[in-house]
Design brief:
The chain has 133 residues and is mostly helical. It has a domain of 40 residues. Helix content is 56%, strand content 11%. The chain is built from six helices and six strands, in the order H-E-E-H-H-E-E-E-E-H-H-H. Strands 1-2 form a two-stranded antiparallel ribbon. Strands 3-4 form a two-stranded antiparallel ribbon. Strand 1 and strand 2 form a beta hairpin. It starts with a helix and ends with a helix.
């Protein structure tokens, strides 16, 4: 049960009682259901008072929409390529040593799994020959 479901009513007028059970049921107002903290900070208010999402994953929504307004396909391709370059600049690339260690780990794991599957395959083949001749 969420905390907002267990929240005590502000006064007795907000609480209602069940006829058979006698259990108090909290009345939850719309303001209590709005997200708090970081989720609420992700919203922006426009000049007319409406809320709109701020940045989704570090990409500005307004900048993204601005590039799609043009009907020129070359402009759209250019905007896409600049966004790709911008995202690639954010990538944390592994160092040479990390890459070697990860590659060796993958090769060892693949070799081990291949050996296990080959062993099972040979074992089942010999079992079938023994059973069915």
């Amino acid at each position: 049960m969420a905390k907002r479901d267990r929240k005590a009513p502000k006064d007795d007028a907000e609480a209602t009682t069940g006829d058979d059970t006698g259990i108090d049921v909290d009345v939850i107002e719309a303001d209590e259901l709005k997200p708090q903290g970081k989720r609420r900070a992700r919203e922006r208010r426009t000049a007319d008072g409406r809320t709109k999402p701020a940045k989704a994953g570090g990409v500005d929504v307004d900048a993204e929409e601005a590039g799609t307004d043009s009907r020129n396909p070359f402009v759209r391709i250019w905007v896409f390529l600049t966004q790709v370059v911008g995202e690639l600049k954010k990538v944390i690339w592994p160092t040479r040593r990390e890459m070697v260690v990860y590659s060796i780990g993958v090769l060892v794991f693949v070799s081990l799994v291949t050996a296990i599957i080959a062993g099972l395959d040979i074992g089942f083949a010999k079992l079938m020959l023994a059973v069915f001749g």
